[in-house]
Design a protein that fits this description.
Elements lengths: L3 E3 L20 H13 L4 H4 L3 H15 L4 E5 L6 H10 L12 E5 L4 H10 L5 E7 L5 H18 L7 E6 L4 H9 L2 E5 L12 H9 L4 H17 L8 H14 L4 E6 L7 H13 L7 E6 L8 H6 L4 E8 L25 H17 L4 E6 L4 H22 L9 H11 L6 H12 L8
Helix pairs in contact: 3-8, 4-8, 4-11, 9-14, 10-14, 11-14, 15-16
Bound molecules: 5-phosphoarabinonic acid.
5-phosphoarabinonic acid (PA5) binds next to loops.
Length: 446
């Protein structure tokens, strides 16, 4: 069964009456832009020109990393979230009792305690470290790289190099220089493939492949969705990604400021943070954009759902389900009388019923909702969903008149942090910091 978008409740609330089948005035300009940017190689997440090279690189690198029991990934943002989503979706065993087989650890924060715990417990000789950074200059990732390099050297001497792989830009950046200088195994992040669009390159697929996940199927699934657009940009008008983009733009135009990503596929729960980063960093610009709100069904029915249902009427929802959720074991016939209606039913029936109940409740509360139903939840399906959401994000940006591929606002905080740490060349930021810190604090104890 294929995957579907179900639209019957999408144009509700303040979107009621909008004719989604009316011709989109900007369509021919968008088609032309798509054609141009594909031809110029500026949308590699869509055209995937890197696939052959990636396959060749994986053939060399995979056997070398799969010798190890542990993979420690150093990366942040788009360089970490895709790998985590795939790990949780397709190799969840690591979180279960008596796990055997490869283990993936993703260090995507600057938590000294957590980092220390990892380096204390991991054995260097059993571990390969994969340092992932498109720019090769992200301070959080490089800081971890420097510390791990010392850790490996202390344990292994010159052999440290065999335990380090870098995934970075083909030519530029500090990590690329490191790879050259120390003859490190390396994979490329292709030109124009920004972090949050890079999960289906070596960035996400090397960790996935290490875990034995069918990474080729992920790419195949992505291509299933990308191909109509790449083969003929004129297909854009009928493509589900543009339909999503059009709806997201309408939400924003009608005062909806939040977009819930309600995932009723528990195994895919960590696709929520992946989507949130993709959407927020791509579209939060010039005072525009909808705040992505990842939520997990059914867990968050007992958490944030009250606000979704009866808080401010400022939310739309993408509601994700699996058409054939696993059913698991069934309840016995001896359940207490009060629960007799559950007798003989499979555990999985709860997920279906609660998903339906929540979806209906959202609709009854006038939350415009697109239901994304996956025909299955294998890696190929995940690749299709990822590509759909990436394309929808880019097209939403185009409709909004912003650049969905940059992230200028986050630079300020980075520059200020660099200044705080004493990096040279940040005189203006140092002055700003001094003025900020000179403001007398108004502290209140608790
Ligand atoms: O999506 C993005 O571009 C960012 O979130 C980056 O992935 C993140 O800042 C890490 O950048 P880099 O991969 O250059 O280390």
């Amino acid at each position: 069964m294929s995957h579907t978008l179900e639209w019957s409740r999408a144009w509700s609330g303040r979107l009621t009456g909008i004719d989604a089948s009316a011709p989109l005035p900007e369509l021919s300009a968008l088609v032309e832009r798509l054609r141009r940017e594909c031809a110029a190689g500026e949308l590699p997440f869509l055209t995937m020109p890197y696939r052959a090279r990636l396959e060749a690189d994986m053939a060399t690198v995979l056997p070398r990393v799969q010798r190890y029991k542990h993979m420690l990934v150093l990366g942040i943002g788009g360089s970490a979230l895709g790998a985590r989503a795939m790990q949780q979706a397709f190799a969840p065993g690591q979180d279960g009792p008596e796990h055997e087989g490869p283990s993936l650890w993703i260090a995507d924060n600057v938590c000294a305690d957590r980092f220390e715990a990892l380096l204390t417990k991991l054995k260097a000789e059993e571990s390969v470290v994969v340092c992932i950074s498109k720019s090769g200059g992200t301070i959080e990732t490089l800081a971890q790289y420097f510390l791990v390099r010392d850790w490996l050297r202390a344990a292994l001497g010159e052999a440290w190099r065999e335990h380090m792989v870098v995934v970075t830009d083909q030519q530029k950046g500090f990590l690329r220089e490191e790879a050259r200088q120390h003859d490190l195994l390396s994979l490329e992040v292709p030109d124009f493939l920004g972090g949050r669009y890079s999960a289906l390159s070596a960035v996400g697929l090397l960790p996935a492949a290490f875990l034995g996940i069918d990474w080729q199927a992920l790419l195949d699934g992505a291509w299933d969705v990308a191909r109509p657009l790449v083969e003929d940009a004129a297909n854009l008008g009928q493509h589900p990604s543009l339909a999503l983009a059009r709806w997201a733009k309408a939400l924003e135009d009608h005062g909806y400021s939040q977009l819930i990503f309600f995932c009723y596929i528990p195994q895919w729960a960590t696709y929520g943070p992946w989507f949130a980063q993709l959407w927020a960093e791509s579209l939060g610009k010039q005072g525009k954009g909808t705040q992505p709100v990842p939520a997990i069904g059914v867990t968050d029915q007992h958490s944030v759902n009250q606000m979704f249902l009866d808080g401010q009427r400022d939310k739309g929802c993408i509601f994700l389900t699996n058409a054939r959720p696993p059913q698991g074991r069934s309840f016995g016939q001896d359940l207490p009388e009060k629960w007799a209606w559950l007798r003989g039913k499979p555990f999985g029936s709860l997920l279906e019923a609660e998903g339906l109940g929540t979806r209906m409740a959202l609709c009854k509360n006038d939350v415009p909702l697109v239901h994304v139903e996956m025909g299955d939840i294998g890696p190929r399906a995940a690749g299709s969903l990822m590509l759909l959401l990436e394309a929808a994000t880019v097209f939403t940006g185009w409709l909004m008149g912003i650049d969905p591929l940059d992230q200028p606002a986050v630079e300020l905080g980075k520059r200020l942090a660099n200044a705080r740490l004493g990096a040279p060349g940040y005189a203006a930021e140092e002055a700003d910091l001094a003025a900020y810190l000179a403001t007398p604090p108004q502290r209140q104890g608790f």
